[in-house]
């Protein structure tokens, strides 16, 4: 009887460590960052509901939920790093090689700022929220559009001589009146202030 009891204890401990091991392995292979928060039960494992969790885990961990979706602090930090979240209104339109000339023609004598960027460009991501702010502040007199320099737009980008990212080109009446290379907020703001009514 005594051997059976010690075997049962060893078996119970082994099961507890195996369940912890599975949680750790799942956290290593999850595509999103692992966080401790309360999220939807469909994507989480509640440690308190496992049969042996109360015996071997600290009580403070017994009520937590492991999740593969990021916590709110992770989402906030992502926004600070310049990762663009979906907004209700797109202030800046995406244009490509087919719609580039048409966009400039439709703008007429309104100032147009063209943002040349790529998805992997850090400074491009960092300045994007500032561009949205400019689009809001100068909504009647400035139109901001963006061109992704990768893929099908490479021919257009080479034609225009874009070599530095981000590059900003200003147009009025379909003519390029200025170019700013690099994420220079003050240069953008000053030029817009001088050339808008």
From TrEMBL:
<keyword id="KW-1133">Transmembrane helix</keyword>
<dbReference type="InterPro" id="IPR017937">
    <property type="entry name" value="Thioredoxin_CS"/>
</dbReference>
<feature type="domain" description="Thioredoxin">
    <location>
        <begin position="63"/>
        <end position="197"/>
    </location>
</feature>
<keyword id="KW-0472">Membrane</keyword>
<dbReference type="Pfam" id="PF00085">
    <property type="entry name" value="Thioredoxin"/>
</dbReference>
<protein>
    <submittedName>
        <fullName>Chloroplast thioredoxin F-type</fullName>
    </submittedName>
</protein>
<dbReference type="InterPro" id="IPR013766">
    <property type="entry name" value="Thioredoxin_domain"/>
</dbReference>
<keyword id="KW-1015">Disulfide bond</keyword>
<dbReference type="InterPro" id="IPR036249">
    <property type="entry name" value="Thioredoxin-like_sf"/>
</dbReference>
<feature type="transmembrane region" description="Helical">
    <location>
        <begin position="6"/>
        <end position="26"/>
    </location>
</feature>
<keyword id="KW-0812">Transmembrane</keyword>
């Amino acid at each position: 009887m005594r051997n059976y009891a010690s075997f049962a204890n060893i078996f119970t401990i082994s099961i507890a460590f195996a369940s912890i091991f599975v949680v750790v392995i799942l956290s290593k292979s999850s595509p999103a960052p692992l966080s401790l928060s309360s999220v939807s039960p469909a994507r989480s494992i509640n440690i308190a509901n496992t049969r042996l969790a109360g015996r071997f885990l600290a009580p403070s961990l017994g009520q937590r939920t492991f999740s593969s979706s990021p916590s709110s602090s992770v989402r906030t930090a992502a926004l600070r790093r310049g990762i663009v979240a979906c907004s209700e209104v797109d202030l800046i339109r995406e244009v490509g090689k087919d719609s580039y000339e048409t966009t400039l023609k439709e703008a007429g004598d309104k100032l147009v700022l063209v943002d040349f960027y790529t998805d992997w460009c850090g400074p491009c991501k960092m300045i994007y929220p500032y561009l949205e702010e400019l689009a809001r502040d100068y909504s009647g007199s400035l139109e901001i559009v963006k061109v992704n320099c990768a893929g099908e737009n490479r021919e257009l980008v080479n034609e225009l001589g874009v070599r530095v990212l981000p590059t900003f080109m200003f147009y009025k009446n379909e003519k390029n009146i200025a170019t700013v290379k690099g994420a220079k907020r003050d240069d953008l703001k000053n030029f817009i202030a001088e050339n808008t009514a």
